[in-house]
Design brief:
The structure is a homodimer.
Chain A lengths: L17 E6 L9 E6 L11 E16 L7 H13 L2 E11 L5 H19 L6 E8 L6 H14 L5 H7 L8 E9 L4 E9 L12 E6 L5 H14 L15 E6 L9 H21 L7 E9 L2 H12 L2 H8 L5 H9 L11 E4 L2 E5 L2 E2 L4 H7 L4 E7 L5 E8 L3 H8 L4
Parallel strand pairs in A: 4-5, 8-9, 10-14
Antiparallel strand pairs in A: 1-6, 2-3, 3-4, 3-9, 6-7, 7-8, 10-15, 11-12, 11-14, 12-13
Enzyme class (chains A, B): transferase
GO molecular function (chains A, B): L-glutamate N-acetyltransferase activity; L-glutamate N-acetyltransferase activity, acting on acetyl-L-ornithine as donor
Function (chains A, B): Catalyzes two activities which are involved in the cyclic version of arginine biosynthesis: the synthesis of N-acetylglutamate from glutamate and acetyl-CoA as the acetyl donor, and of ornithine by transacetylation between N(2)-acetylornithine and glutamate.
Chain lengths: 416, 416
């Protein structure tokens, strides 16, 4: 886990009866998993491009997939497999270098063949293999190198191989992203949750995509795992943005091995899962394409949580707000204009806005603040923005990054 | 009108029975109007910052205002005035340098005082004056220079003053924006429609806003004028984007003097209005902050027009699509991913995409195309993108620009 763990209690919990200990580890932190990465030759750079996460025995599996109507072949195949098994899996095979989307029947067949090859190497059913791909849209994965890479990949899986796997799924990512925690409850139960992810645009279809694999040694029923994963994703990955774009390949897989000897309460497990996903999500924003500042938005005083989230999301996706933060400009006018554009009923005279601790707008008009000091405070790598709507008691948070020349360079100058 | 008039027939018209002749003129092209600009000292740059458009006698007036819930004082006052008069006005007073929004009761009072001052100078009712402002949000307009500027502004109004007015409302605009046409029908009727606008972000709240004044000598009933204006705005200004952000001040005013001797059919008037707004809208995109390419999107083969427009708007607002065009990269994967993210039911296997005349995707997969030739064609200042969904017969168009380093520079480096 990174040095600044995000330890958020589960919503509705007054008094957590568990402790969350950050670990410096990743997807192989829990018992019962191994992982690895190999270079199969899918990337021009010659860097590692295939990864695997394997459970020692068939594990409970759940996944959340992209909401994009254009879905990659590995998404289609993974959906089918989870339905066929009722939420069980042995392994997740991931590749960077090509997204295997918009590649027609050949792409779909290649995904099926890859799952079959992995199943053969692992000695499990084909339906017990899940797949993730990331890379260029519409460019086929080189079939033979991909299929030839699978046996060595299975062979490379190791109980200490989490970092190798995390590195093999990077595309425009500058750093690999791992997180892990150990949770204990006051009944003496404990479990470990670990994960890895990649993504530096919320998506950049030609270069990046959000993929995550999360593991735990806690025993989870498939339906329970599904609910926990969806709630944790909604509160973490669904509340961050780099460029507001939805990938064709986004996938988050949870594998639960059930190998923990004295597992903790479901509440404790969910809190640990939430902590790992929140940590991975913020690592992704911090490594956002061209990002120089992470912006932590809190919208409070809303009539409903949905209103608060709509406002936070609109502000967090606004190019003018994001460029103002790139320039350390406490330009609250851009923020209040985005609040007004969120489609939510507001009362301008009730709005208060604080940037990096400086109240810049009060009662919907400019507050008396020190521009130079506010600008100075905005140069920190993490900047808090608090928007109070003055209407109610509901709130939501959202994390985004600034929009800089670096984003343009990465995404425009990657030309033919 | 610019050298490449956009001459679009009114929807539903099979055979236009009118001709549209582009004129090299602007808001004072129609009979019965004068306009002008002065330097009142509202801008630090010392450039002209107040403009007026005046009808010789009280004219039919209609306006479309921003959908933002945060609305500027001039928007509030103009709404009130149009309601009070039932759709009549004598003049529109515009200023750049400050948006007069989020300035509390003082800002509202200043707008009322400005309207009263203009009414006094013109000898009309205060309610017959409409107001528009553009500039920084939350920073008050310097009251005395603004009010002192009004009498000289009224005195400066001239039947040939359209360009002066267009120049006085510029902010980050690099060029002033005027358009005018003469319409004739086959019954011998004719009228002139002229206009001006400013805006180089669809909004950049601290620097820009979309403002337009359109005039005609055709006689129009207020209700008819309102319908015509709303339809024309929906088909033009509402189908362009620079950065997808909604201003607090956006306003489009139509003034109809009724001075044309033999006015043409309503259909001809509406076609002329549509042509002027379409031309102004495209001039605005062409002058978009940092824009190097104008992207003309056409989505066809949709089940409904609303679906076609939703897809076109999603593609047109997508930062990754826009950066790909900045790099002349025929990266159709980004386009199809945006299509899939539009929330519209689609069939990936029916999608065809052409960029600058090159079919890059057919049946939802990569077409056989010459990448280098497509990239070369994308270096033109105007690039056509055609997306056929293969589902039905409905279509929509949308115009956007690329996202470049220039946009970041303008909006990030405008710091405290």
């Amino acid at each position: 886990m990174s040095s600044d763990p995000v330890d958020q209690p589960v919503e509705g919990q007054d008094e957590p009866v568990h402790q969350i200990l950050p670990l410096d580890d990743g997807v192989t932190a829990p018992w019962g998993f191994s992982a690895g990465g190999v270079t199969a030759g899918l990337k021009g750079s010659g860097r590692p491009d295939m990864a695997i996460v394997v459970a020692d025995d068939v594990a409970t599996a759940s996944a959340v997939f992209t909401a994009n109507r254009i879905q990659a072949a590995p998404v289609t195949v993974s959906r089918e497999h989870l339905l066929a098994t009722g939420g069980r899996a042995r392994a997740v095979v991931l590749n960077s270098g090509s997204a295997n989307v918009c590649c027609g029947p050949d792409g779909l067949q290649l995904a099926r063949d890859a799952a079959a090859a992995a199943a053969e190497a692992l000695g499990c059913a084909t339906e017990e293999v899940l797949l993730c791909s990331t890379g260029v849209i519409g460019e086929p994965i080189p079939a033979q190198p991909y299929l030839d890479g699978i046996a060595p990949l299975v062979a490379a899986a190791d109980p200490n191989g989490g970092l190798d796997a995390a590195e093999a799924i990077m595309t425009t990512d500058l750093v690999s992203k791992e997180s892990a925690v150990h949770v204990t409850d006051d009944e003496g139960g404990s479990a470990t949750i670990g994960g890895m992810c990649k993504g530096s645009g919320m998506i950049a279809p030609s270069l990046a995509t959000m993929l995550a694999v999360v593991t735990t040694d806690a025993p989870l029923d498939p339906l329970v795992a599904d609910g926990m994963l969806r709630r944790a994703v909604e509160a973490t990955f669904n509340r961050v943005s780099v460029d507001g774009v939805i990938s064709t390949n986004d996938t988050i897989v949870l594998l639960a091995s059930g190998t923990a000897v004295t597992p903790p309460s479901p509440t404790a497990i969910e809190a640990g899962l939430h902590a790992v996903l929140a940590d991975l999500a913020i690592q992704m924003v911090r490594d956002g394409e061209g990002a120089e500042h992470v912006i932590h938005l809190t919208v409070s005083g809303a009539s409903t949580e949905a209103d608060a989230l709509a406002v936070a999301r609109k502000v967090g996706d606004d190019n003018l707000v994001k460029t103002a933060f790139a320039g350390a400009d406490p330009n609250w006018g851009r923020i209040i204009a985005a609040v007004g554009a969120a489609g939510v009923d507001i009362d301008p005279t009730g709005i208060e806005i604080a940037i990096a601790g400086h109240v810049v707008c009060r009662g919907g008009v400019k507050a008396d603040f020190d521009r130079a000091a506010a600008s100075e405070a905005m140069q920190a790598p993490d900047v808090d923005v608090r928007i109070d709507l003055g209407l109610g008691t509901e709130r939501a948070t959202f994390i985004t990054c600034d929009l800089t020349h670096g984003y343009i360079t990465i995404n425009a100058e990657y030309t033919t």
